[in-house]
Amino acid sequence: MAPAQRRRKCLKSYPEDAVYSENDFISRLHDEILVLILDKLPMKDALRTSMLSRRWRFVWRSMHKVDFTYRWVEETGNEVLPSVSQFLRRCKVKEMNCFRLSFRYNSSMLHRINSWISLALKNGVKELDLNFNDLEDTRKKAMWRHPYYHFPECLYSSSSVVKLGLAFLKLDLPTRLRLKNLRELSLDRVVLPDDAIEKIATDCEKLELLSLTNCNMRGDLKITIQPRAVPIKVSILDGFMMVEPKTDLIIDCPTLGGLEFRGGMTRTNFLIKNVPAGVEARFNFDEMLYRQRVVLVTGAGLYGAQYNKNLQNLLNIFQSAKHFHFCSWCIQILSVKKMMKQEMVMLGSTSLVLDTGLLKWELPGIACLLTACPNLENLAVVMVRQSMFKIRETFTRKYDFEEGRYWEIIGQETPPCWQSLRVLKFKNEYGEYQTWDEGMFCVRSFFTGYENGMNLLKFVHSKAANLERVIFRTNTKSITYLPSDLAIYL
């Protein structure tokens, strides 16, 4: 078939009346609005819109994002690098909001990758995310490589990048960084020199959030941040089977705004100093629950004393934190400590969030935390699905209690103590009772599957004299009650 005939045939494949259809209001929108719509779609779906009609044929060329990750490979079967080359040759990008790539890097790609990064920066890219490995691609044999990569100099002096994500490489920083508008930095399985975080935090004055996922898996992770005008929040995820146990986490940050631990309590020592008062502390070590033999509870106490020691150390360090968020694993550790009548540090927190399944052996830990926080103003109980420690019968025989009457008994021992508590929240994420008709909310149905929650509500209600409102929230709805309105249930 002649080229002219092929072109005519291609043109006829587009509906002739698509632009003129009275009901096709979307196609009548301005190009800028259509591009914004495409930017919200996955790359595959955005590019396929070129087949809708003549009106849509070239709209994709003005998209503000380049997003080729393993999802692209999975949905189309096309490799990332050839797809990126073809896309950039055909598009007419004048402004780029997002540039995201995931690929298995080798040194032959250096010039090509750097030219793409330079193009993205030239077009004012705001979000840059580069993953130098493709572990998600199950068609290939997994390779745990952390290559050195020399980024173009223009990256380190960019004024457009607001959010930067890097994964699977050894970070080699220049003497001076000038990322003056960088606010979020995410590093995933990156090998960092000891002074890397200090240099980044010092030179990137607007940095607000630093996320470190499995960084320095085979060595110590050092986070030093000098005093700065903008407090910085740090999130650390160490996978239990990813990070070498015989390593330390070292933090020195006098302007820390918040610190979140996720994953497992893997490292041997947590050496943290110069933590300012009033920070946010989030302990989400729930990966430990799925390694049940890591912590074993016997009649003699906890088998896995290192974790108990580290948790106690963290509580001492963050004693003056204003916001605490505890996972079920921490609550269960504290349950054992309370049942064995071990000392619990007092906390200055005014806001407390508890992720709990409200299981029997979580109740003492919840009571322990409530007692340790006499200055509470806000209490949130997030009801989640959780598993329990491996608890030996020798422990349950020695420390057993009547589950249904636990809060009643604790209430008899505890005088009214939360004079500052104003707001009590319950969030039900997994229960069957997720929605209700207007005016038909039932508190007892809300706690279906979490029966201990009703007794906890009664306990807090009776001890917080100045409670102003109680909020019940699911994934779809929310309702607020005055304490006096709950009397019919209590």
| Structural class by helix and strand composition | alpha/beta
Strand neighbour order, sheet with most strands: 1-2-3-4-5-6-8-10-12-15-16-17-19-20-21
Distance between the termini: 82 Å
Q: What is the helix tally? A: 15
| Shape field | globular
Radius of gyration: 28 Å
Query: What's the average pLDDT?
Result: 87
> In total, how many beta strands?
21
Q: Which runs of at least 5 residues are low in confidence (pLDDT < 50)? A: 3-20
Largest sheet: 15 strands, mixed
Pfam families: F-box, LRR_At5g56370
Domain F-box: 23-73
InterPro entries: F-box-like_dom_sf, F-box_AtFBL13-like, F-box_dom, FBL13/AtMIF1-like, LRR_dom_sf, LRR_FXL15/At3g58940/PEG3-like
Protein name: F-box domain-containing protein
Comma- or semicolon-separated keywords:
490 residues; alpha/beta; 3-stranded parallel sheet; globular; disordered N terminus; F-box domain-containing protein; LRR_FXL15/At3g58940/PEG3-like; LRR_dom_sf; F-box_AtFBL13-like
